[in-house]
């Protein structure tokens, strides 16, 4: 079985400019994703899809391959990443068919190699079309999340079937993370999104599940990495 890791890193990032090659604890953000994929020991190749020559150069410096460049229309803010996944699958399979697609977003630099292995191994045990990652949620829509009406009144977002007085009694709920996604090239070609098939999840502890979208996230990731050294 050929397992290929993919990292999707476009050049434009408004929340954190230059995010994908910005140093985090001395390593560019994309370098952390490359290292986790390599250290998992289960990926035959690590491919980077980018529209930015600077990102491509850094990716190759850290041991990834950049066999194609992403078209500009797939690197816009409003371009669905699923289409970038499909482009990458088509570009690779034109020369080298493979069996397993593993996406390792740059935005989760605290993931471990074991997290990647756990996702791949769960998928290969069968029974699903996609593996995603999630973390225990800090808020619950049946207890302490609300919606707001147009006239300013708050209401529980997802009213429970029975009265809940403590958050601990609410059914478990999880936040999706960007630690890892595992599926097949065929699923990506035939579908339009993650939840169009049978999905299983690997639960990631909060300290490894941080998604970097803002400067505050970046600063918190630096703090966690320094604390763990």
Automatic annotation (TrEMBL):
EC number from the UniProt entry: 2.7.7.-
Alphabetical list of SUPFAM superfamilies matching this protein: Nucleotide-diphospho-sugar transferases
Domain of life assignment: Bacteria
Keywords from the named record: Nucleotidyltransferase, Transferase
CDD domains per the UniProt record, alphabetical: CMP-NeuAc_Synthase
GO molecular function: nucleotidyltransferase activity
Keyword Transferase: yes
PANTHER family (UniProt xref): HAD SUPERFAMILY MEMBERS CMAS AND KDSC, N-ACYLNEURAMINATE CYTIDYLYLTRANSFERASE-RELATED
Protein name: Acylneuraminate cytidylyltransferase family protein
């Amino acid at each position: 079985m050929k397992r290929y890791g993919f990292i999707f890193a476009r050049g434009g990032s408004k929340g954190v400019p230059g995010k994908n090659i910005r140093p985090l604890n001395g390593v560019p953000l994309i370098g952390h994703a490359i290292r986790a994929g390599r250290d998992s020991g289960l990926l035959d190749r690590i491919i980077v899809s980018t529209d930015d020559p600077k990102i491509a150069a850094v990716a190759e410096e850290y041991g990834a391959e950049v066999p194609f460049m992403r078209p500009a229309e797939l690197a816009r803010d409003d371009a669905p990443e699923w289409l970038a996944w499909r482009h990458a699958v088509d570009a690779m399979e034109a020369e080298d068919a493979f069996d397993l697609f593993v996406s390792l977003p740059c935005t989760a630099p605290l993931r471990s190699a074991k997290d990647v292995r756990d996702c791949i191994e769960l998928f290969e045990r069968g029974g699903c079309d996609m593996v995603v990652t999630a973390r225990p949620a800090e808020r619950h829509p049946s207890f302490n999340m609300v919606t707001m009406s147009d006239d300013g009144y708050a209401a529980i977002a997802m009213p429970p079937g029975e009265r809940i007085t403590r958050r601990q009694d609410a059914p478990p709920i999880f936040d999706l993370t960007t630690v890892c996604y595992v599926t097949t090239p065929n699923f990506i070609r035939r579908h339009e999104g993650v939840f169009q098939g049978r999905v299983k999840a690997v639960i990631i502890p909060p300290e490894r599940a941080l998604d970097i979208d803002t400067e505050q996230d970046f600063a918190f990731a630096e703090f966690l990495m320094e604390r763990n050294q």
